[in-house]
Design goal:
single chain, mainly alpha, minor pseudopilin epsh fold, three-stranded antiparallel beta sheet, 55% helix, globular
Length: 239
C-alpha cells in the first residue's frame, strides 16, 4: 500500500467512524455490501438497484432522479475534492486549512455512506425481517409494530435535516433507534446502521411538500427488510 492509499484508507475509516464507528468502517471494506469507491480508490456513485421509477408510488421517479443524481452524486464529487485538498495540504506541508477540509469530508462522506445504505434499504417488493432479526426486534422493542412506531416518530422529529436510523449497538448487543442531524451529528459511536430514513427535504418535497410525516409513513411500504436483515447478520459478526 503506497502513501496515498494508506492516507485514503485511513480517512475513509475515520470519516465512517463519525457515522457508525470503526466496526462499520470495517464492514464497508470487508462485507462487500456497500461499495463506496471505484477501482482507483476514488469515491464513486454506484448504480441504483432498481429503475428510477421502481419505487413508485411511494417515491416518485423525478424525486429519485434528482436525489440520486444530484444530492447524492454531488456529495460524492465533493468528498473526492475534500480528500484531494487534504492530500495536497499534506504534500505541501501547509496544514493551516486542513481542519476545514476534514470537516467537509466528514460531512460529504457521511452523506455518501448513508445514501448508499438508503438506496439498498428500499425495494418495490419488500420482504419481512428474517427470523433472527425479528427475534432481536421482539427482545429490544417488544413487537415489530412498536419498533416501526418508534422509528417513524424519531424520523419525523429530526430537527432540520437529517436521518432516522435503526442500528445495532455491538457494545450492548442491542438494536437502537437514533437521529442523525445533518449527516454526522447526534450519532452514537460504535452503532452500525441497518436501516436509514432520509428526511432531508430533497427526499420528499416534490411530492409531499412539507408533509414529512406522510412521506415517512409511505417509506415503510418500500423498506427492503431482507437487506436490513442481511446487515444485521454482518453487524453481529463484526461485533
Amino acid at each position: 500500500m503506497d502513501r496515498k492509499q494508506f492516507i485514503t484508507t485511513s480517512i475513509l475509516a475515520g470519516a465512517a467512524a463519525t457515522v457508525a464507528g470503526q466496526a462499520f468502517a470495517q464492514s464497508l471494506q470487508e462485507s462487500g455490501l456497500d461499495k463506496l469507491t471505484d477501482a482507483a480508490g476514488n469515491y464513486a456513485l454506484q448504480p441504483l438497484p432498481y429503475a428510477e421509477s421502481g419505487l413508485e408510488p411511494a417515491m416518485d421517479q423525478e424525486t429519485v432522479h434528482l436525489h440520486y443524481t444530484f444530492h447524492h452524486g454531488d456529495a460524492v464529487k465533493a468528498a473526492n475534492n475534500d480528500l484531494k485538498m487534504i492530500l495536497q495540504s499534506l504534500d505541501a506541508n501547509t496544514l493551516d486549512a486542513v481542519d476545514y477540509w476534514t470537516r467537509k469530508l466528514s460531512y460529504h462522506l457521511s452523506s455518501h455512506i448513508l445514501h448508499t445504505i438508503f438506496w439498498t434499504n428500499l425495494s418495490k417488493n419488500p420482504l419481512q425481517p428474517s427470523r433472527e432479526l425479528m427475534q432481536q426486534i421482539s427482545k429490544d422493542f417488544g413487537t415489530f409494530d412498536r419498533l416501526k412506531l418508534l422509528l417513524a416518530k424519531t424520523s419525523k422529529g429530526v430537527d432540520g435535516n437529517g436521518w432516522g436510523i435503526l442500528g445495532y449497538q455491538p457494545f450492548t448487543k442491542q438494536l437502537t433507534v437514533l437521529q442523525c442531524e445533518n449527516h454526522e451529528k447526534l450519532t452514537q459511536w460504535g452503532v452500525i446502521p441497518l436501516l436509514v430514513m432520509d428526511v432531508w427535504e430533497h427526499s420528499y418535497y416534490l411530492k409531499f411538500r412539507n408533509r414529512r410525516g406522510e412521506f415517512v409513513d409511505q417509506l415503510f411500504a418500500i423498506i427492503n427488510w431482507d437487506n436490513v436483515s442481511h446487515r444485521f447478520e454482518i453487524a453481529k459478526k463484526l461485533a
